[in-house]
Amino acid sequence: MNEDKKKITQEFFRKLYSQENIPEDITKQYLEKAGLTKITDTTRIMLERIMTMEITEAIKRQKNNNTPGPDGLPAELYKNLQESLGSSLLEVYNNALLRAKLLKTWTEAHITLIPKEDRSPTDKNITIKC
Questions:
Q1: Which domain of life is it from (predicted)?
Q2: How many domains does the chain have?
Q3: Residue 106's closest CA among 116, 114, 96?
């Protein structure tokens, strides 16, 4: 009896994991009947791989005399080394996207309160710089 169960189980899993070519229309019908929620276009775009052009544009938009993160590296550094850093940044960002995990430092910010010149430091006279 145990041998019969073993054979039945083996056959079941062999068929389950065999590489059968299922026609695309049958797959689509199954997915439509499954009632799965479709993701929005915005979500779909956000889940796509990051492109080199996006990194280039983001670096260009950085303000000079500003450090975009707690590492203290100024925007000018990224702008001047863009060609040599681009592929490394692309790999890091796409790995973060793929794993859905951000580096801890990406969630940190340094906020500096800068009093406006010749004014008392009240909440109305302070510029916030991140």
A1: Eukaryota
A2: 1
A3: 96
Domain assignment present for 23: no
Name the residue range of residue 49's domain.
Answer: 38-129
pTM beyond 0.70: no
Domain for residue 18, yes or no?
A: no
Give per-residue pLDDT as tens, 30-56: 888 888 888 899 888 877 899 999 999
- Could you tell me if residue 9 is inside a domain? no
DSSP letters for 2-38:
HHHHHHHHHHHHHHHTS-----HHHHHHHHHHTTPPP
Largest CA distance in the chain: 93
Of the candidates 71, 102, 99, the one whose C-alpha atom is nearest the C-alpha of residue 85 is 71
